[in-house]
């Protein structure tokens, strides 16, 4: 799983302390992938080494200070690439995809539809190849069972991606209706905020609506 | 590369007029070459069935051009369109539409006889098409004597019979179980490998996996498509 890209994505919203990043990551992904603080700082150290984040010293009075991290332009480019690249099935466990989409619907300005679409194309192409191998593979039972397992997995992933897309579309529709009615003043403020220039063409109302309350 | 069997050029289809008008397809271009099986996927209402109707000359576009086996359909009379449908296009639909009073072979031979073939020749070609789908022995049985999977294969044989090179399939495995459904796809695939072109509309990713290309439709527009086959290496990597 790509902790590196997840942390970069969170830093894209503004500078953060390491501990805060860790809890933000866990709350956004439903606590499915617990991180320890050491893992977070090791990752931040590597990101800093690679020029993707920088340390900022924040004075705290009485001579004390603390360190927080901010994303660099190169880091922003890296995370922008991550959103639109399919997860590489050959080298990473499958959970990266669930993690990526959990973050994509909460980080403002991500074109979730495009993220889903790019992944769907890659997974469909993978399924086509698996089917071709099965068709031409002969009668080896063990091999055909392994292939079937991969086919079922790809099929399930495609169904899940359709589900994600439908949910995102529905959430965007519901948010639009709410905005039209103007029945909740605070939600109208959130909408304007999300639709401000520079947040991108994604589903701003979705990202705003789905955001967890806790911000650090 | 050989000439395409089916070409849709910037096709738009709008149903109704004024405020109630619905744009079912917009500026869609698609080419299917001999030997190619192309799957079309998309949510309900995305234009899949409209696409299939236009590709099969069952409906005409509001704008754009459909070409089947080199014939531009815009220029054809109703009678000529009917001839294109009978000679070049095989349809396989979810409900098999077999006539219960006719045997499997008679059902398959029917479109040939309607097109003027002599009964003996039509019978010979029908039995050949049934052999292709593995049902030669069932040629003289009536639909009610066949299983669901066998009936669907008879419907496919009827779609394939004769010289047709364009096969249009709309959820062709319908309510069949996955093993039987797969047998149906094997038949379609074999026909394409022998030089036919097929357009398969389906919700089922597993079936779309049999295609050479998968086109994703949404709101009447192609939003994405898979390209040709990947290298074998990328799969070997996936197996590790």
TrEMBL record, chain A:
Q: Where is this region: Disordered?
A: 179-216
Origin superkingdom: Bacteria
Q: Which Pfam families match?
A: PadR, Vir_act_alpha_C
> Residue ranges of the Transcription regulator PadR C-terminal domain?
94-167
Q: What residue stretches are annotated with the Transcription regulator PadR N-terminal domain?
A: 7-80
InterPro entries per UniProt: Tscrpt_reg_PadR_C (IPR018309), Tscrpt_reg_PadR_N (IPR005149), WH-like_DNA-bd_sf (IPR036388), WH_DNA-bd_sf (IPR036390)
Q: What is this protein called?
A: Transcriptional regulator
Organism of derivation: Ornithinimicrobium tianjinense
Automatic annotation (TrEMBL), chain B:
Q: Which SMART domains match?
A: AAA
Q: Name one GO molecular function term.
A: transmembrane transporter activity
Gene3D superfamilies attached to this UniProt entry: P-loop containing nucleotide triphosphate hydrolases
* Classification via InterPro entries: AAA+_ATPase (IPR003593), ABC_transporter-like_ATP-bd (IPR003439), ABC_transporter-like_CS (IPR017871), ABC_transpr_LolD-like (IPR015854), MacB-like_ATP-bd (IPR017911), P-loop_NTPase (IPR027417)
UniProt keywords (A-Z) are: ATP-binding, Nucleotide-binding, Transport
Would the keyword Protease be found if you checked this record's keyword annotation? no
Describe the location of the ABC transporter domain by residue ranges: 6-238
Cellular component (GO) terms are: membrane protein complex; plasma membrane
Keyword Transport assigned: yes
Instruction: Name the chain's protein.
Output: Macrolide ABC transporter ATP-binding protein
């Amino acid at each position: 799983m790509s902790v590196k890209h997840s942390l970069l994505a969170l830093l894209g919203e503004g500078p953060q302390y390491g501990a805060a990043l860790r809890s933000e990551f866990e709350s956004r992904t439903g606590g499915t992938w617990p991180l320890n603080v050491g893992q977070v700082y090791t990752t931040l150290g590597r990101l800093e080494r690679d020029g993707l984040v920088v340390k900022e010293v924040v004075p705290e009075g009485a001579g004390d200070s603390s360190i927080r991290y901010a994303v660099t332009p190169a880091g922003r480019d890296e995370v922008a690439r991550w959103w639109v690249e399919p997860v590489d099935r050959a080298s990473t466990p499958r959970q990266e995809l669930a993690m990526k989409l959990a973050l994509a619907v909460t980080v403002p300005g991500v074109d979730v539809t495009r993220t889903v679409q790019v992944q769907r194309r890659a997974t469909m192409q993978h399924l086509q190849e698996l089917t071709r191998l099965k068709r031409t593979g002969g009668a080896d039972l063990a091999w055909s069972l392994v292939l079937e397992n991969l086919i079922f997995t790809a099929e399930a992933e495609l169904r899940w991606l359709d589900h994600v897309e439908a949910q995102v579309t529905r959430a965007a529709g519901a948010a639009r209706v709410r905005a039209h009615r103007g029945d909740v003043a605070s939600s109208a403020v959130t909408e304007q905020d999300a639709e401000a220039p520079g947040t991108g063409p994604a589903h701003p109302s979705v990202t705003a609506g789905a955001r967890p309350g806790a911000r650090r | 590369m050989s000439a395409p069997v089916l070409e849709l050029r910037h096709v738009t289809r709008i149903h109704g007029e004024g405020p109630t008008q619905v744009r079912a397809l917009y500026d869609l271009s698609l080419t299917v070459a001999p030997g190619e099986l192309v799957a079309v996927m998309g949510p309900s209402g995305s234009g899949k069935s409209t696409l299939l109707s236009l590709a099969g000359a069952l409906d005409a576009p509001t704008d754009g051009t459909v070409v089947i086996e080199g014939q531009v359909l815009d220029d054809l009379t109703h009678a000529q369109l009917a001839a294109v449908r009978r000679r070049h296009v095989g349809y396989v639909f979810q409900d098999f539409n077999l006539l219960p009073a006719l045997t499997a072979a008679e059902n398959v031979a029917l479109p040939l006889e309607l097109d003027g073939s002599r009964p003996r020749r039509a019978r010979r070609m029908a039995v050949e098409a049934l052999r292709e789908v593995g049902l030669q022995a069932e040629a003289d049985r009536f639909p009610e004597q066949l299983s669901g999977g066998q009936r669907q294969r008879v419907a496919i044989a009827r779609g394939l019979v004769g010289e047709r090179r364009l096969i249009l399939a709309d959820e062709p495995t319908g309510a069949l179980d996955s093993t039987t459904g797969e047998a149906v796809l094997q038949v379609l695939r074999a026909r394409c490998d022998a030089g036919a072109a097929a357009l398969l509309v389906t919700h089922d990713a597993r079936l779309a996996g049999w295609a050479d290309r998968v086109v994703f439709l949404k709101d009447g527009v192609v939003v994405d498509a898979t390209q040709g086959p990947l290298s074998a290496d990328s799969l070997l990597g996936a197996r590790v």
